[in-house]
Amino acid sequence: MPVTRGFTRRAAERDPRLPPGQYDAGDGWPVLHAEATPSIRTDGWTFTVDGLVMTPTTWSWEEIQALPGSRYEGAIHCVTTWSKFGMTFDGVSVDTLLKAAGPFDDAAFVLARSHTGYTTNLPIEDVTDGKAWVVWNVNGTPLEAIHGGPARLLVPHLYFWKSAKWVSGLKLLPQDQPGFWERNGYHDRGDPWLEQRYQGD
Ligand SMILES: Nc1nc2c(c(=O)[nH]1)N[C@H]1C(S)=C(S)[C@@H](COP(=O)(O)O)O[C@H]1N2
Ligand SMILES: [Mo]
């Protein structure tokens, strides 16, 4: 039956790494952000973990680079339906940063913030156990300003709006506090495999 065979072939051709409703952007890497691209120098740059932590901690550019490095190799998924495969990001694991600051037991959420004022919220489980990074290199080269350089958050198992560009810190909170896109109609969590694109999904 040709109809059945056609359906089966198309299903087999779909890349199993592609979450539902996503397409492979190939070599291109779309640029998306709400604010003007800032020009942020690495001298004077800081990254701070504060809120519900024993030791609020700020790292300079040199200090964060001196931490044990960590790499992510894999896909990224934007809510506007493009995905990219085979990305290599280098930076530091959020686990390393949180370990230094020592979250209190009641720290259940984080609000990531950017040097531009952008924010995005995450449950602490989504940034611990090797699931999130602060990164400054992509595919072996320094992250360009248009992609969040000098450093951005990377939370690749969630839609890419959670990966705050020009990231400046994480605040540990007792309850969820929606960030920029989450207040503007995007889903609170943003799991691409569950197609959690917009509020109510
Ligand atoms: N500071 C900041 N970070 C941001 C955004 C933004 O508007 N401002 N947009 C998010 C969204 S919606 C996406 S899809 C990705 C886009 O990252 P890219 O431009 O490197 O592809 O950045 C995320 N991080
Ligand atoms: Mo996005």
What does this structure look like?
This protein is an alpha+beta fold and 201 residues long. It has a single domain, classed as Sulfite Oxidase, Chain A, domain 2 (Alpha-Beta Complex), CATH 3.90.420.10. It has four helices and eleven strands, in the order H-E-E-E-H-E-E-H-E-E-E-E-E-E-H. A hairpin with a 2-residue loop joins strand 8 and strand 9. It is globular and about 50 Å long. The mean pLDDT is 94. The site of the ligand Nc1nc2c(c(=O)[nH]1)N[C@H]1C(S)=C(S)[C@@H](COP(=O)(O)O)O[C@H]1N2 has 19 residues, from loops.
CATH homologous group name: Oxidoreductase, molybdopterin-binding domain
Shape type? globular
Distance between the termini: 36 Å
Please write the string of helix (H) and strand (E) elements: HEEEHEEHEEEEEEH
| CATH class (first level) name | Alpha Beta
Estimated structural class = alpha+beta
Poorly predicted runs of 5 or more residues: none
Rounded mean pLDDT score: 94
**CATH-scheme architecture:** Alpha-Beta Complex
Quickly count the helices: 4
User: What kind of assembly state do the chains in view correspond to?
Assistant: single chain
Number of strands: 11
Gyration radius from CA atoms, angstroms: 18 Å
Helix proportion: 10-25%
Largest sheet: 6 strands, mixed
Any idea how many domains?
1
CATH domain topology: Sulfite Oxidase, Chain A, domain 2
Strand content: 25-35%
Bound molecules: the ligand Nc1nc2c(c(=O)[nH]1)N[C@H]1C(S)=C(S)[C@@H](COP(=O)(O)O)O[C@H]1N2, molybdenum atom
Pfam family, one: Oxidored_molyb
Domain Oxidoreductase molybdopterin-binding: 36-181
Protein name: Sulfite oxidase-like oxidoreductase
Region (Disordered): 1-27
